[in-house]
Design brief:
- The chain has 367 residues and is α/β, with parallel strands linked by helices.
- The protein folds into 2 domains: 11-23 and 93-139 and 215-360, HAD superfamily/HAD-like (Rossmann fold, 3-Layer(aba) Sandwich); 25-86 and 140-210, AF1437-like domain superfamily (AF1437-like domain fold, Orthogonal Bundle), CATH 1.10.3870.10.
- The chain contains 19 helices and 7 strands.
- The chain has a 7-stranded mixed sheet, with helices on both faces.
- The longest helix has 19 residues, at 37-55.
Length: 367
């Protein structure tokens, strides 16, 4: 077994929805409280991908879907208590997640950085015995906003209009809205009118300004805040993510010499990762975290290159975790690979398919 590295402070940071839970809480809230909320949310989520990754709208970041939908949640009577009650009844953990969160806290300072609303994260932290004080998430106080009956009616009309629009398809290699079909260009134009011209003139427009989702660049800033407070660097961070909202943080950690892991990720997260994990159980995360905490990034990459039963013992994985891996998977270990120029497109395709088997078709195809 290799000698352990010096007592360097290493840090574990994970997204929540995907690597820890199967939920997309905002999608589920919309589906529960808003008519045709699944179609409505899926459209706004795709619009979010377009604004963040293609248009690169100034002042907009991946995950801002969670501010765009807030006026409509309010219009349909959603309150902070309703959000918390609904979340408490619907947290769905990825198998092994509670054990993984307990383990990583023993190994190194550990944090959740999530775009999710605070009501959901508070419930998940309570369920997993993870300190809410170590969670970065989207703060939202819906109850402080007051909108008139007339505005509520208008918001409902707009929501019904959006729920009836066709879903947008992002063309492969698209670099501008001009690359989209004519129908989709019209849909994007209408969304632009609603969110950047009409809503800002209303009282509920304040929500678009005041709600600041922890997504995209905010996730990268959250990791920066963590390393600043702990007095370490990005090279000391292991970050686990799965979506477009994680891409900037994954990129920042990877470029800073840390370990960037895509866990059942979509195209965006796989693109920015060192390692792609396709697994229905988080014990794989536990294994990678243990090796990272003891030996650092290079040993993790070597472990991934030798992925299998013999590799676990060779690279210092504890007997307890080795037993867990074989109990969960037998000899048929889940797919864990290095992301390289040669493997990128294949891993993006394989991970996209696998993520839908874990999280379901509707949530799995969201950005």
């Amino acid at each position: 077994m290799a000698a352990e590295a010096s007592n360097q402070k290493r840090v574990f940071v994970t997204d929540c929805e995907g690597p820890i839970s199967k939920n997309d809480n905002a999608f589920e809230l919309a589906a529960e409280f808003v008519p045709k909320g699944d179609n409505f949310f899926a459209l706004i989520s795709k619009y979010d991908d377009i604004l963040a990754d293609i248009v690169k709208k100034l002042g907009y970041k991946a995950g801002d879907t969670l501010r765009l939908i807030v006026p409509f949640l309010k219009a349909y009577g959603v309150t902070g208590q309703k959000m918390r009650t609904f979340s408490s009844k619907n947290v769905l953990l990825v198998p092994g997640a509670k054990n993984t969160l307990q383990l990583v806290q023993k190994l190194m300072p550990s944090f959740i950085v999530s775009t999710s609303y605070e009501q959901y994260i508070a419930e998940l932290c309570e369920l997993t015995d993870f300190p809410f004080s170590n969670a970065y998430c989207t703060r939202l106080n819906l109850d402080k906003y007051e909108i008139t009956t007339e505005e509520t009616s208008w918001l409902k009309q707009i929501q019904q209009e959006l729920a009836g629009l066709p879903q947008i398809q992002i063309p492969k290699g698209a670099v501008s809205v001009a690359d989209f079909s004519g129908t989709d260009q019209q849909t994007i134009k209408r969304l632009d009118e609603i969110f950047w011209k009409e809503l800002p003139k209303t009282e509920s427009g304040k929500m678009l300004v005041e709600v600041n989702p922890v997504g995209g660049t905010e996730k990268a800033r959250s990791v920066e805040d963590i390393v600043t407070k702990l007095g370490c660097g990005f090279g000391d961070v292991m970050y686990v993510g799965d979506s477009i909202t994680d891409a900037p943080a994954l990129c920042r950690v990877r470029e800073g010499g840390g370990l960037a892991v895509s866990f059942n990720g979509n195209d965006y997260s796989v693109r920015e990762a060192d390692v792609a994990v396709l697994s229905g159980n988080t014990v794989v995360t536990s294994v990678l975290a243990q090796v990272f905490s003891r030996f650092g990034k290079e040993k993790v990459l070597q472990l991934v290159e030798s992925w299998g039963v013999s590799g676990l013992e060779k690279f210092g994985v504890s007997a307890e975790l080795r037993v867990q891996m074989q109990t969960v998977f037998g000899k048929d270990f889940p797919q864990v690979e290095l992301v390289t120029g040669d493997s990128l497109e294949r891993l993006q395709a394989e991970s996209k398919v696998f993520r839908k088997t874990v999280r379901g078709e509707a949530i799995g195809k969201l950005g």
